[in-house]
């Protein structure tokens, strides 16, 4: 499988398939949204597992569909970590392990090998999640007048309950959880916020999260999308990816993820998808059979542009809100940083600065270097790094060394440390 | 059911034209190669009368009071068209695109990227330049009182909404009313010039071709009759310049025609017209719903003497921040009483008018009405039935701190099954609290006062008393049920030890 050989071949192949009247994956496949985008009710399912593509299609649907239309879109991604629009990847994700093995080939059984995991920044808000093929993403776009944060989470809960998952409910944060308590029988089956297993006092076992939600609201559209952990083989591995060793050293604005224990529901993707589509059809009238979409949609310019944008380092890293990186957070005046605490299990790299220094990063570039104890002269040297995007630091350092710049000997260890604290996983590499 | 109010996107949008993109690096969402969604409109070539208005960040619902600016799509000087995106903001799980209601030019950004923007406060200043639709006119005129000239202070309160900040020199001095020409209107004080309003629609109809909506809007503001103005524009149209000149000319007459300036020079306190703040709007909506509930009021005195002495003993050994007020005790007492009278901890579901039903809530989520800098907020202490008094106290402290700093989340503000209004922290004796639907009861606690009373042997003793005012929904709660619950609360608080034996 070498799809990177060219989109064109894929497009041609799919055109041929359509021309010959073949069905793909049981759904009627389309190569362009032009025919369906203006319909009042639309239903799509993706046959691609490229997260950048699926998000781009979703975004196109949000931008281009008529204001009064309602759309359901289901998609599944290959293993990837997806951060929210305004999050800090260095704070949320262990980028070190994303990058460490990025040259390792994929395993046959689809298990993510350390490194073969994409990093994606989506356009909606919310926290960081791990996607893989055991997780189905559902997305509903509707007019703002009809929109509530719970409406479609409740739809998914109804679908799950019809498939026998009676522990599922919507919680206060609009996530879907599985109650873990013992059956106590007190619950209205129509109440999607309560199950017979719901424990009211804090004493009972915590519910386990199976779906998280995020929203994007524009002038006349509301998008609500969420995950659904069905049969992820990587539940044990997920926490490793979502805990960043740089966290104690970073102080940031922006939305932080709220961590929850997760579980698999234990259904097949097909059963879940079908039931969600049915629930959607029950809620709205005139829902057509779902259209299958895939890479051939890249022939639409806006989708292709959005796709390319999502894959730039600039979008992925430089959209991060302002933050500071401090080599000695315990010395910082603001005690708030101690809340994170230093994890004693994560080793400090040998090239960790001995002298406390603080880097301020804005728009993905170093804008300030501060140190209360460093000499002015050395600080001057370090300020060479100012206005450099994090992804360009390595290149800059290399060039300085190549030119025999005398400051490069001082800058090199600092650049190494920055690289360890703020790794950059090249997006292009992970595109298979 | 939580609703995101869909007015979040009455916001500003700016279309980035080529010259304004330069210094904004790579953060544009749209690239120039993507075709425009709307045809570009013509802007007027008349010189801009600086009608610059601060544009407020609209209420995005869910009780959210501030959100982070993720990305600006405009910068000062940028031309915007209606519905162009101005910026994207982020609040917890939602990222929201704010779009412009008007065509115009952005004058000022109030925040930098990554700053926290406050809901209801100015987001940008925009110079509204071209056509203003009738709805927009209404919105603009909403806050400039139907009363022209004697204008309230220009940037008086940000809460004054879309206010005209009259930067033009004529406008600033234009507080003195231009006296209407003698043949049309008799001279009268400004506050009664509302009759000019009903005339406006007629003017619109008759002279629609003589001026654009922007100019008509201006004449309304200046209280000038458009028929009086000589149009020098195309086909005899009245332009902004014409209006300006006319207004200037009018201003000179007050000094000559004394009779037509009734009360001009007297400085008077002016009425301020304020739209509702987001919190007031929330209250308005909620209380309007509560209007339909027949309130049954029950008032009682609770003897706080023994509770106060207990608290004094307990607090003697505590840090200042850990000291217990009476409130957590009251909350716990209410919860214990609700366990015995679960009907008062219910929601009344009238969504099906044929079949109203009670949903008896298992959790005691007690909302505590707090007075915050921005107004009334009711954060909810969840699961009181399983919290100790100390835990309740800590939680109230936590929520109070969040309320004061404006950081309460939607989760903190929702899900209440019962409300407690601690108006006593400010003052008051007996109150008649308003039930927050869909709840069916509410308790208002007045201030504890020292009163004289008689002891066992008839001697005069000092007693500390607070008045507890209960309201219950008389459609589903009868007097006896409310009274019994109130009695239980009273006995718990007057004999705190009795709470001890009920605690889980």
From TrEMBL, chain A:
<comment type="function">
    <text>Catalyzes both the ATP-dependent activation of exogenously supplied lipoate to lipoyl-AMP and the transfer of the activated lipoyl onto the lipoyl domains of lipoate-dependent enzymes.</text>
</comment>
<protein>
    <recommendedName>
        <fullName>Putative lipoate-protein ligase A</fullName>
    </recommendedName>
</protein>
<dbReference type="GO" id="GO:0005739">
    <property type="term" value="C:mitochondrion"/>
</dbReference>
<dbReference type="InterPro" id="IPR004562">
    <property type="entry name" value="LipoylTrfase_LipoateP_Ligase"/>
</dbReference>
<dbReference type="GO" id="GO:0017118">
    <property type="term" value="F:lipoyltransferase activity"/>
</dbReference>
<comment type="pathway">
    <text>Protein modification; protein lipoylation via exogenous pathway; protein N(6)-(lipoyl)lysine from lipoate: step 2/2.</text>
</comment>
<dbReference type="InterPro" id="IPR045864">
    <property type="entry name" value="aa-tRNA-synth_II/BPL/LPL"/>
</dbReference>
<dbReference type="InterPro" id="IPR004143">
    <property type="entry name" value="BPL_LPL_catalytic"/>
</dbReference>
<dbReference type="Pfam" id="PF21948">
    <property type="entry name" value="LplA-B_cat"/>
</dbReference>
<feature type="domain" description="BPL/LPL catalytic">
    <location>
        <begin position="66"/>
        <end position="288"/>
    </location>
</feature>
<feature type="compositionally biased region" description="Basic and acidic residues">
    <location>
        <begin position="185"/>
        <end position="194"/>
    </location>
</feature>
<feature type="region of interest" description="Disordered">
    <location>
        <begin position="176"/>
        <end position="208"/>
    </location>
</feature>
<dbReference type="GO" id="GO:0009249">
    <property type="term" value="P:protein lipoylation"/>
</dbReference>
<comment type="similarity">
    <text>Belongs to the LplA family.</text>
</comment>
TrEMBL record, chain B:
<dbReference type="GO" id="GO:0031405">
    <property type="term" value="F:lipoic acid binding"/>
</dbReference>
<dbReference type="GO" id="GO:0043754">
    <property type="term" value="F:dihydrolipoamide branched chain acyltransferase activity"/>
</dbReference>
<dbReference type="InterPro" id="IPR011053">
    <property type="entry name" value="Single_hybrid_motif"/>
</dbReference>
<feature type="region of interest" description="Disordered">
    <location>
        <begin position="137"/>
        <end position="213"/>
    </location>
</feature>
<feature type="compositionally biased region" description="Pro residues">
    <location>
        <begin position="176"/>
        <end position="189"/>
    </location>
</feature>
<dbReference type="GO" id="GO:0005829">
    <property type="term" value="C:cytosol"/>
</dbReference>
<dbReference type="InterPro" id="IPR036625">
    <property type="entry name" value="E3-bd_dom_sf"/>
</dbReference>
<dbReference type="InterPro" id="IPR050743">
    <property type="entry name" value="2-oxoacid_DH_E2_comp"/>
</dbReference>
<keyword id="KW-0809">Transit peptide</keyword>
<dbReference type="Pfam" id="PF00198">
    <property type="entry name" value="2-oxoacid_dh"/>
</dbReference>
<protein>
    <recommendedName>
        <fullName>Dihydrolipoamide acetyltransferase component of pyruvate dehydrogenase complex</fullName>
        <ecNumber>2.3.1.-</ecNumber>
    </recommendedName>
</protein>
<feature type="domain" description="Lipoyl-binding">
    <location>
        <begin position="48"/>
        <end position="127"/>
    </location>
</feature>
<dbReference type="GO" id="GO:0045333">
    <property type="term" value="P:cellular respiration"/>
</dbReference>
<keyword id="KW-0012">Acyltransferase</keyword>
<comment type="similarity">
    <text>Belongs to the 2-oxoacid dehydrogenase family.</text>
</comment>
<feature type="compositionally biased region" description="Low complexity">
    <location>
        <begin position="251"/>
        <end position="267"/>
    </location>
</feature>
<dbReference type="InterPro" id="IPR000089">
    <property type="entry name" value="Biotin_lipoyl"/>
</dbReference>
<dbReference type="Pfam" id="PF02817">
    <property type="entry name" value="E3_binding"/>
</dbReference>
<dbReference type="InterPro" id="IPR004167">
    <property type="entry name" value="PSBD"/>
</dbReference>
<dbReference type="GO" id="GO:0005759">
    <property type="term" value="C:mitochondrial matrix"/>
</dbReference>
<dbReference type="Pfam" id="PF00364">
    <property type="entry name" value="Biotin_lipoyl"/>
</dbReference>
<feature type="region of interest" description="Disordered">
    <location>
        <begin position="246"/>
        <end position="275"/>
    </location>
</feature>
């Amino acid at each position: 499988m070498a799809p990177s050989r060219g989109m064109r071949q894929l497009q041609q192949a799919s055109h041929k398939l359509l021309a010959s009247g073949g069905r793909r994956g049981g759904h009627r496949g389309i190569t362009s949204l032009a025919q369906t985008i203006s319909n009042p009710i639309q239903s799509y399912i993706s046959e691609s597992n490229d997260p950048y593509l699926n998000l781009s299609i979703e975004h196109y649907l949000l931008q281009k569909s008529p204001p009064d239309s309602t759309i359901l879109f289901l998609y599944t991604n290959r293993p990837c970590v997806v951060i929210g629009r305004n999050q800090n990847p260095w704070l949320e994700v262990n980028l070190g392990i994303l990058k460490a093995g990025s040259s390792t080939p994929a395993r046959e059984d689809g298990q993510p090998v350390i490194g073969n995991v994409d990093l994606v920044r989506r356009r909606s808000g919310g926290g960081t999640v791990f996607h893989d093929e055991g997780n189905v993403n559902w997305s509903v776009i509707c007019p703002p007048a009809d929109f509530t944060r719970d409406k479609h989470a409740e739809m998914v809960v109804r679908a799950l309950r019809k498939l026998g998952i009676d522990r599922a409910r919507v919680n206060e944060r609009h996530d879907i959880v599985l109650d873990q308590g013992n059956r106590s029988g007190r619950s209205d089956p129509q109440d999607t916020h309560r199950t017979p297993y719901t424990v009211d006092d804090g004493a009972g076992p915590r519910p386990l999260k199976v779906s998280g939600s995020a929203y994007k609201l524009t002038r006349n559209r509301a998008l609500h999308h969420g995950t659904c952990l069905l049969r992820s083989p990587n539940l044990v591995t997920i926490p490793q990816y979502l805990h960043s060793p740089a966290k104690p050293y970073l102080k940031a604005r922006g939305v932080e993820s709220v961590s929850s224990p997760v579980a698999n529901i234990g259904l097949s993707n097909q059963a879940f998808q079908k039931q969600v589509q049915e629930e959607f059809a029950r809620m709205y009238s005139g829902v057509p059979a779902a259209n299958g979409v895939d890479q051939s949609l890249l022939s639409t310019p806006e989708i292709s542009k959005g796709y390319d944008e999502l894959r730039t380092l600039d979008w992925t890293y430089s959209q991060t809100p302002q933050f500071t990186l401090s080599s000695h957070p315990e010395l910082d005046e603001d005690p708030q940083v101690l809340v994170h605490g230093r994890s004693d299990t994560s080793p400090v790299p040998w090239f960790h600065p001995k002298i406390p220094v603080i880097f301020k990063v804005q728009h993905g570039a170093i804008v300030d270097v501060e140190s209360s104890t460093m000499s002015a002269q050395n600080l001057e040297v370090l300020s060479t790094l100012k206005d450099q995007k994090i992804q360009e630091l390595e290149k800059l350092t290399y060039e300085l060394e190549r030119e025999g710049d005398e400051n490069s000997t001082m800058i090199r260890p600092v650049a190494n440390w920055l690289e360890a604290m703020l790794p950059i996983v090249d997006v292009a590499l992970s595109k298979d | 059911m939580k609703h995101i109010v869909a007015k979040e996107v009455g916001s500003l949008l700016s279309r980035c034209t080529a010259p304004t993109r330069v210094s904004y690096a790579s953060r544009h969402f749209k690239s120039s190669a993507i075709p425009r969604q709307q045809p570009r409109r013509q802007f007027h070539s008349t010189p801009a009368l600086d009608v610059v208005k601060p544009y407020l960040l609209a209420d995005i619902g869910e009780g959210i009071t501030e959100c982070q600016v993720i990305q600006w799509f405009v910068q000062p000087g940028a031309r915007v068209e209606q519905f162009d995106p101005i910026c994207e903001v982020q609040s917890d799980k939602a990222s929201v695109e704010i779009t412009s209601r008007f065509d115009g030019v952005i004058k000022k950004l109030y925040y930098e990227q990554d700053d926290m923007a406050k809901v209801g406060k100015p987001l940008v200043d925009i110079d509204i330049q071209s056509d203003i639709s009738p709805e927009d006119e209404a919105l603009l005129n909403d806050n400039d009182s139907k009363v022209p000239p004697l204008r309230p202070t220009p940037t008086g309160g940000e809460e004054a909404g879309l206010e005209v900040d009259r930067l033009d020199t004529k406008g600033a001095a234009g507080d003195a009313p231009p006296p209407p020409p003698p043949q049309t209107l008799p001279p009268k004080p400004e506050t009664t010039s509302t009759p000019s309003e009903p005339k406006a629609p007629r003017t619109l109809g008759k002279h629609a071709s003589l001026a654009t909506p922007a100019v008509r809007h201006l004449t309304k503001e200046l209280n000038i009759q458009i028929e009086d103005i000589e149009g020098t524009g195309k086909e005899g149209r009245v332009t902004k310049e014409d209006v300006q000149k006319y207004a200037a000319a009018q201003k000179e007459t007050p000094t000559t025609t004394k009779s037509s300036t009734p009360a001009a020079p007297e400085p008077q306190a002016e009425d301020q017209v304020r739209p509702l703040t987001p919190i007031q709007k929330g209250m308005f909506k909620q209380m309007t719903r509560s209007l339909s509930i027949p309130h049954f009021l029950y008032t009682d005195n609770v003897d706080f003497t023994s509770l106060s002495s207990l608290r004094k003993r307990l607090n003697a050994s505590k840090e200042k921040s850990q000291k217990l007020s009476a409130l957590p005790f009251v909350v716990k007492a209410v919860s214990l009483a609700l366990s015995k009278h679960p009907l008062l901890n219910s929601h009344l579901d009238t969504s099906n008018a044929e079949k109203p039903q009670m949903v008896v809530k298992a959790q005691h989520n007690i909302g505590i009405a707090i007075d915050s800098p921005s107004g009334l907020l009711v954060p909810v202490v969840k699961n009181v039935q399983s919290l100790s008094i100390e835990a309740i106290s800590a939680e109230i402290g936590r929520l109070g701190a969040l309320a004061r700093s404006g950081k309460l989340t939607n989760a903190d503000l929702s899900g209440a099954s019962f409300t407690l209004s601690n108006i006593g922290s400010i003052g008051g004796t007996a109150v008649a609290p308003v039930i927050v639907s869909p709840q069916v009861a509410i308790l208002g606690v007045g201030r504890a006062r020292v009163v004289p009373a008689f002891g066992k042997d008839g001697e005069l003793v000092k007693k500390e008393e607070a008045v507890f005012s209960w309201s219950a929904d008389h459609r589903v709660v009868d007097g006896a049920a409310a009274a019994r619950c109130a009695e239980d609360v009273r006995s718990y608080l007057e004999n705190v030890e009795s709470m001890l034996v009920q605690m889980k």
